[in-house]
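Session log. Operator J.P. requested a structure for one protein chain; no other inputs attached. Running the standard single-chain path with token output.
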Amino acid sequence: MADAEASGVLGLLDRLSAGPVICAEGYLFELERSGYVAAGPYVPEAVLDHPDAVIQLHRDFLRAGSDVMLAFTYYAHREKLRLIGKEGALEELNRTAIRLAREVAREGEALVAGNVCNSNIFVDGEAESARRVRAMFDEQVGWAVDEGVDFIVAETISYVSEALLALEAIKEAGLPAVINLAIFRDPLTREGLTPAQACKRLEDAGADVVGLNCARGPATMLPLLGEIREAVSCHVAALPVAYRTSEDEPTFLSLSDSECACIPEERPFPTALDPFTCNRYEIAEFTKDARALGVNYLGVCCGAAPHHIRSMAEALGRQPPASRYSPDMTRHAYLGTVDEIPAANRSFARYL
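Structure written below.
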């Protein structure tokens, strides 16, 4: 039985019917910045090697307003573990990740979500490829069900046919399915479908929530969301990366930085994206714009930090625990306006 159901907490679909749900993501990038995950392979070894770091990030996201503790099993699939010679740790990593997420979820009223993702070995139209990928999804979903997750997210998938394999595995397990596609430079899936067409196909196959995550930042994801919302009747998800993308460089993988000549291979992705990071106010504006389109499953993907999630929650009119420490510039030593700030400091502010 799902943990939320057993405790009397509303499940995902009931919550979505009542209002927006926030799901914090970005674990890979945030833990890489902290020195617990290696960029490149991006395998979530921290689950086993540094569980305290994973727990703390879950806790930070919970305090910031996330309604969901997403198990850190992104790229915890057989092919990725084989790549680094740790396939034998596959089941332990998946089960442990869910247990860490649940430990923190119980500190609030958060849901626990399992997570599967792009396999990187799928080849459209190849039966053997589909068989191997489906087997990978089945084992991860099976462990998630055993551990009592409330729903499962399949994400960052650029083939609809691969997403359908994940959806089949989730629905056969009897759990709600959130299916999010990654749309790269051309605004199409790798089969050539528009995001709206792709999401409609997923809805028709039984997905409870469809939408987009990763790849695109707020500015280049938002235009695609309205078309998706018009095409489907189910819930819609939007989880952009926390980076400023543009029409010319619509994904964070395509960004270039003319101001820095020391970036390896002259590509900011993935370890030199700092100058492109969205501030909290940009995330708040995206949240409002996405809600106006009818999107109700919201989050931030790669690059997300707790302050982004807090900003998203506050843009929805919420005051999560972390809002106790939201900015109060009225009390700044120079820029403040309260009477306790010395007049000399306020006068000096123009010279800062």
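Operator note: The mean pLDDT is 97.
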